[in-house]
Write a structure and sequence with these properties.
alpha+beta
């Protein structure tokens, strides 16, 4: 009788573990430069807003989030010198969701740059006095 209880407990554990594993989905994607013929953005950042998970893209611009609960997530993609972008993605249990994230290069005007330099120079001279 005791052996039967142990077998039932072990079987229940494996069944629950299998059902938990089947409840998750994955996101696989690429982070690309929209203005550069979709060149991959190496070591760019992709963050899931809802849970704080963050990954860097590889040398092909590829990123992956695994074992995500079914639901809607907001991906925040960024790369130095590019505009940050938020993209909503729907995760389905037992499926991989493929997505391509395209970023635009950010622009900075010469006036903004000169203002930033002048501001830095002013702070530097005032701290030296």
């Amino acid at each position: 009788m005791k052996l039967m209880k142990h077998i039932i407990v072990i079987a229940a554990f494996f069944i629950s573990a299998l059902s938990f594993a089947q409840e998750s989905g994955h996101v696989i994607g690429h982070l690309l430069d929209l203005e550069s013929n979709n060149a991959p953005l190496l070591y760019g950042s992709v963050l899931i807003k809802e849970n704080g998970q963050k990954v860097l893209t590889d040398e092909n611009g590829l990123f992956k989030f695994e074992n995500l609960a079914e639901g809607t997530y907001t991906l925040i993609s960024s790369f130095t010198g590019y505009e940050t972008k938020e993209t909503t993605v729907e995760i389905t249990a037992n499926k991989s969701t493929n997505i391509t994230l395209n970023l635009n290069a950010s622009t900075i005007s010469l006036d903004d740059l000169m203002l930033a330099i002048a501001s830095t120079e002013t702070e530097s001279t005032s701290s030296n006095n």
